[in-house]
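This section describes the prediction task in plain terms. A model, or a person checking by hand, is given the sequence of a single protein chain and must write out its three-dimensional structure as a string of tokens. No templates, partner chains or ligands are provided. The sample shown here is typical of the held-out split.
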Amino acid sequence: MDIVWITVALIFALIFVMIFLSFVPIGLWITSLASGVHVGISSLIGMKLRRIQPKRLVEPLIKARKAGLDMSLSKLETHYLAGGNVDRVINALIAAQRSNIEMPFEKASAIDLAGRDVLQAVQMSVTPKVIETPVVAAIAKDGIELRAKARVTVRTNIERLVGGAGEETIIARVGEGIVTTVGSSETHKQVLENPDLISQTVLNKGLDAGTAYEILSIDIADVDVGRNVGAQLQMDQAEADRRIAQAHAEERRAMAVAHEQEMKAAVQEMRARVVEAEAEVPKAMAAALRDGKLGVMDYYQLQNVIADTSMREGIAKASAPAGEAKK
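The expected answer:
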């Protein structure tokens, strides 16, 4: 019986040890002890109960202590529970310490929680970054278009990293400075002869105000001559004026045609009235003969006058030149 109870006790002990080892990361605890960082078993069990992977906090803590940073496990746990990247924050603090950049844990964690890459920010603060702007088109006062591309060397401003504008704002402001400089130049040759005008104008505007970066230099990488916009605008204006004049001419022609049609209609109406009046002449003459107002001799005399007039018109047409006769 004793052997049976001893066997059962050993089995329960083995099961308990296995459950304990599966729940408590003994290997991580031993690693922390070997690294000189004391992390209690109770702290590891508490992290397990709070559904925190102890490895994600203990390893960054060991790294920070080895780098000489005064870091506590509670700070790392608080940042982890807030949704931050603990390992990236520790790497950034180590990089800042090696570069003699003052950065407390609170600021690094705030930058990380703001969605910024705090490690990249520290690296850019040590090694400046070059931002290349897209091609910016601007037109000088003489109407010639210039296409310029700039390279902006920036360095991260740790103090303004939280709440500061990003690279898009820098690129937009540099493009605005290029357009302003080229647009205020009398001729495009001034900009081609001295591209530093663009750099000086842009730098004097203080374009890095309110941004997360500090502009170190602005270099004009390329300037190309584009279209002659002034000449194109003049050509477009001349074409528009021609179309307007043509429209006015068409309007006048239409009015003239309408007036001509009205005159033809008036002439036809007058001819109709004349024909109508001529048709009344025989009736009037018959009435005059019947009433005795016109004698027979008067009528014959009138016929002789009409015949004489017709004869004279025939002689005049016969004696006229061929061209006039045709007319």
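For orientation: The chain has a mean pLDDT of 79.
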